[in-house]
Amino acid sequence: MGADKFARQMQYLVDRGYRGVSLATAMKHDASRSRIVALTFDDGTRDFWDHARPCLQEFGFRGTLFVVTGRVGTVSSWDQDVGESPRPLMNWDRLVRLQRNGFEIASHTHTHRVLPSLSDHEAAHELVESRRVLAARIGTAPDLLAYPRGARTERDRELAREAGYRAACTVILRWRDVTGWPRANGVQRTQDRALLPELPRMPVKGNESMGRFRARLALARRAGLRPGLGLPD
Ligand SMILES: [Zn+2]
After folding, report:
1. Which CATH number do you get for residue 213?
2. How far is residue 98's CA from residue 188's CA, in Å, rounded to a whole number?
């Protein structure tokens, strides 16, 4: 995404009285009463550091970064699978500094492999190892996970819960995916306590217009995409 376009999107939020925060912060608020937007950034790319971070800090915004623990400081080689060129990734030094500045550092698995394609053992390793490495490097084991490409099965949700995560972000790919979400609480609760709760996210692409950005924000609000009063225990 161009830095100018990102800055315009953040300015739009400021102009309407919104504050951009991490998911950890958003979950402590009653979002129906506070004008907050949880901002999340996947992969931990260097362009976040170079372009998004200065802009967010200028506005006093924060956010959640989902990082690929086994690839920190290298390049996003997984992008080649979908025909994109690899992007440089931030190193641990930068991630630690971001955390000290109030950004939340959470897990995007250990190597960004798409979980449903893996064996039970491999999928568990992606989840457990990422949480362990973050605890060692950042000092806090993360509560949150973002599934690579949003892909997960019930098996993956079980494994993630067993690994110690408290909720996972998914990606809304189609408009109709949002219509069924509960209006009062962005956390999709489940009757099955073995499954990790889900947090639906509205993706914002680098090439979309401001009109599209406004429409996404409005739709997210109508669909009740907002964290509730806390995660289930
Ligand atoms: Zn990713």
Report:
1. 3.20.20.370
2. 29
DSSP state of 65: E
Query: 8 in a domain, yes or no?
Result: yes
Domain holding 153, by residue range, is 3-222
**Centre of ligand 1 from the C-alpha of residue 108, in Å:** 7
Give the angle subtended at the CA of 80 by the CAs of 177 and 98, to the nearest 5°: 75
Residues with Cβ within 8 Å of 130's Cβ and at least 6 positions away in sequence, in order, are 68, 69, 70, 107, 108, 109, 110, 145
pLDDT tens profile 72-126: 999 999 988 788 899 999 999 999 999 999 999 999 999 999 999 999 999 999 9
In angstroms, rounded to a whole number, what is the distance separating the alpha carbons of residues 198 and 15? 30
Distance 33 CA to ligand 1 centre (A): 31
With respect to residue 227, please indicate whether it lies within any of the assigned structural domains.
Answer: no
What is the CA(44)–ligand 1 centre distance, in A? 9
Q: Is residue 41 part of a domain?
A: yes
User: What's 79's DSSP letter?
Assistant: G
Cα 216 to ligand 1 centroid, rounded to whole Å: 20
pLDDT band at 53 (very low <50, low <70, confident <90, very high): very high
Cα(173) to centroid of ligand 1, in Å? 14
For 147, the token pair is 């599934």
Q: 43: CA distance to ligand 1 center in Å? A: 5
**Distance (Å) from CA 9 to ligand 1 centroid:** 21
- The reported pLDDT for the residue numbered 193 is 72
Residue at 233 is within a domain: no
